[in-house]
Sequence to fold (88 residues):
Amino acid sequence: MTPPFVVRISEKAKADLKKLPGDIQRRIINKLAISQENPFHYFTRMEGRTDYKLRVGDYRILADIKPNEHFIDVTKAGHRKNIYKNLD
Fold:
């Protein structure tokens, strides 16, 4: 059995999460915890990009998944209408 992935949340993503309502924060944290066993089941690769998105209702979590290192690096979180603006 492979070990679970480790979720690392960037400072930017932490700040994004703090701006969200408490119930949404809990839902996102729970979904990230569930996805640690098999992130590719929950995350979808973004079109034309190397990073992934995770859907939690109307909210999205953007992350880089490093399968060889077993890391999920969360880079951004927010409402779906705003999350895709100003992507690098």
